[in-house]
Amino acid sequence: MHDKIVLAYSGGLDTSVCIQWLKENYSADIIAVTIDLGGDGEQDLDFIREKGLKVGAEKCYVIDAKDEFTDDFLSMAIQANAYYEEDYFLATALGRPLIVKKMIEVAEKENATAIAHGCTGKGNDQVRFDVAAKAMNPEMEIIAPVREWSMSRNEEISYARENGIPIPVDVDSPYSTDVNMWGRSIECGVLEDPWQEPPEEVFEWTEAPEDAPEQAENIEIRFEQGIPVELNGEKMSPANLIKKLNKTAGQHGLGRVDHVENRLVGIKSREIYEGPAAVVILEAHRQLEDLTLTKDLMHYKRRISDKFSELVYNGLWFTPLMESLQSFIESSQKTVTGTVRLKMYRGGMMVTGRKSPFSLYDLGLATYDDNDQFDHQAAEGFIDIWSMPSQVYASVMRKNDQTWIQKKKND
To answer: Are strands 227-231 and 338-345 parallel, antiparallel or unpaired?
Structure first.
């Protein structure tokens, strides 16, 4: 048994029920920990603290981790151009290792011997919490009440009502959400049917494209070594830039993602995401890399980025491989400095300009006008060398009465 258990507390249905359930089943003092990762006003932190204490927590920590989240997690994700399965910008997945880090810090400070979370037994977050905790403190026990109690969502709601626990959802509005400054995730209810169009009520940060302004808006984002530092000529911290861009891009209907993804536990899940700043910044950053990275570095980095994104999604932030990938990614960003201009209009965006002091674009080599400096005569020798393996193979095949067409027919 445990004298103290540190619970990751969001104020939502699952974690509110967890406080009472843990007290009943473990006879321990529950220390609730809420981590502020910049929910853009969607989270009332004072209310969450008061609610945690009212529900039965002995203490309730509210920790401001916005700067650490931006500096140590989001900045790396931007430099990596991190997307899981080309659609999901990893907002929730990026927040989990930092939440666990703060939970372990509180647990060690309070001499707690266990931490707990409200993750389900078929989601990704349980893996992210458990693996990160084991990596940071292998001796800390991990308790996952939702895996143990086997209550349905409706049964949880009934349990909460029976125990006087205030909850933010009811049977008619069963959506489950997670939010930080990089994005919102929404699931449950009608969203579990992949054919069902998401109702407008699930969106908080983005206008429907048909309701967005009729006039397009141009913005400029400046990066320094792959980190966004300036919006429309105004210098600001990455956190403030993300916050401002969430509102600006969201007004134009940017950032809605409807994704059927492959969960780590082996099932497919339909998820709705909102991340206006994420989709705009990542596209601008990708375009700046296209301008400033050599071909081989750019192509290889995209393979590294895919692996980085996979590790983030799978909860493997605190691993030697992740540390090594981060070193590569940071090194690749030495010349990714410059400005990208984008036009936003009714759910769509287009990059309309990019410039950098490290630009590898040479107008004299690229142009077709009278200022063309490219040596066209050199192309013939290059083609001969480039095609040498094909020429040798073709000669051998012809000597043996084979050609590509004949070989295909024979196969």
So the answer is: unpaired
**Is 302 among the catalytic positions?**
no
Q: Annotated catalytic, 387?
A: no
137: helix, coil or strand? coil
Phi-psi category of residue 319: left, alpha or beta, with phi > 0 → left and psi -120 to 50 → alpha: beta
The rounded distance, in Å, linking the Cα atoms of 177 and 184 is 7
CA distance 273 to 313: 15
The answer to whether domain 179-355 has CATH 3.30.70.980 is no
Alpha carbon distance 263, 270 (integer Å)? 10
Q: What percent of the chain has pLDDT over 90?
A: 74
Catalytic residue check, 96: yes
Partners of 217 in the beta sheet? 344
d(CA 116, CA 165): 19
Catalytic residue of the set 125, 178, 184, 346: 125
| 125 catalytically annotated | yes
Q: What are phi and psi of 198, to 5 degrees?
A: -60, 130
Average pLDDT of span 38-43: 69
Domain ranges for the chain:
4-174, 179-355, 372-410
CATH topology of domain 4-174: Rossmann fold (3.40.50)
Size of the chain, expressed as the number of residues it contains: 411
Longest dimension (CA), the chain: 87
Phi, psi of 61 (to 5 degrees): -85, 135
User: Are the CB atoms for 115 and 7 separated by under 8 Å?
Assistant: yes
Q: Is the pLDDT of residue 410 over 70?
A: no
Instruction: Give phi and psi for 335, each to the nearest 5.
Output: -110, 5
Alpha carbon of residue 329 to chain centroid: 16
Instruction: Give strand ranges (E) for 136-195.
Output: 141-143, 176-180, 183-187
Which of 10 and 225 is assigned the larger pLDDT? 225
Q: Which of 36, 176, 290, 306 is catalytic?
A: 176
Q: Is 230 helix (H, G, I), strand (E, B) or coil?
A: strand
